[in-house]
Design brief:
Elements (H helix, E strand, L loop, with lengths): L1 H25 L9 E2 L6 E7 L5 H12 L5 E7 L12 E7 L6 E10 L3 E10 H4 L7 H14 L37 H10 L31 E5 L5 E7 L5 E8 L1 H4 L11
Parallel strand pairs: 1-6, 2-3, 2-4, 4-6
Antiparallel strand pairs: 5-6, 5-9, 7-8, 8-9
Helix pairs in contact: 2-4
Length: 276
């Protein structure tokens, strides 16, 4: 009798454990703070500017083609000429590369927020100061970072920041060193597309896909100066990801995701802007 009861108890515990595991997976989320572009219908079209050069247009085109598989967002890429600062433009995402300096970051994604969660403009920057070095100058690492920084600009956070590969560009696997030839984590995966569907399942009564008439120009700008990022609000345990927030005089908020180099991340948890 005891053996039968014991076996039944084990079966019940196993079922409960499996259900709990399934629930965690089913409800896993990597929305970035609920931030999203306001729009009145789905799918919506997002204008995204290609300001890249020196081989980066290939990675831009591949990433946009990948993200365009989403059922809620259509992309309208266009070629633009921008300054090194990659100034944001209302209603668009600006994508750029340049030699931004030995400041410790590989990629930078910034979004401007109004009404608490609505994205009004964004930018994604790739730092050629590091991508021109032997450590980072390989197509898989470039595609990984390009895909991730662009993904942040429509409201996605990381699926993982511990360095393991979830086979999505929204993780912190490094396609460097022994992994330089690996194509893991260079494209979005199905969970990214599913998360976008969740983020954009509701509709808004207004849109931020067009230039606003009341927002003061330049108030939300993020420059090459790290002090323009604002205050450090979060950092991944391995030190490779930091998030900064700055409140602007026009009432908006600018949020910046920073993807640090492996060398900087190895320093641990600190505000890497002031490490030296």
């Amino acid at each position: 009798m005891f053996r039968i009861f014991h076996r039944r108890s084990l079966v019940v515990l196993l079922v409960i454990s499996l259900f709990a595991s399934f629930a965690i997976v089913a409800y896993a989320t990597h929305s970035w703070g609920g931030y999203h572009w306001a729009r009145t219908s789905n799918p919506f079209t997002l204008k995204i500017a290609n300001n890249t050069n020196n081989g980066w247009p290939t990675y831009f085109n591949t990433s946009i083609s990948d993200w365009d598989k989403s059922t809620v967002i259509n992309f309208a890429p266009y070629v633009s000429t921008s300054s090194k600062r990659c100034a944001m433009v209302a209603g668009t995402v600006q994508v750029c590369n340049s030699t931004y300096g030995n400041n410790g970051w590989l990629g930078l994604a910034s979004i401007n927020i109004v009404d608490g969660t609505h994205i009004t403009q964004g930018s994604a920057k790739m730092n050629d100061t590091y991508f021109n070095t032997s450590t980072y100058n390989n197509p898989n690492e470039k595609l990984h970072v390009m895909c991730q920084e662009v993904g942040h600009t429509f409201g996605l956070d990381h699926q993982s920041t511990d360095g393991s590969s979830q086979n999505t560009c929204m993780d912190y696997f490094s396609n460097t060193g022994a992994n330089a030839g690996s194509t893991l984590s260079t494209h979005p995966n199905q969970h990214d597309y599913d998360e976008l569907s969740i983020i954009y399942q509701h509709l808004d009564s207004t849109t931020t896909l067009a230039a606003p008439t009341t927002q003061a120009a330049g108030k939300s700008e993020v420059t090459d100066d790290p002090n323009s990022w604002g205050m450090l609000v979060s950092q991944s345990p391995n030190g490779r990801s930091s998030t900064y927030e700055r409140y602007n005089s026009d009432g908006s908020k600018t949020i910046t995701h920073v993807f640090w180099t492996e060398e900087v991340g190895a320093r641990g948890n600190s505000d890497h802007r002031f490490d030296n």
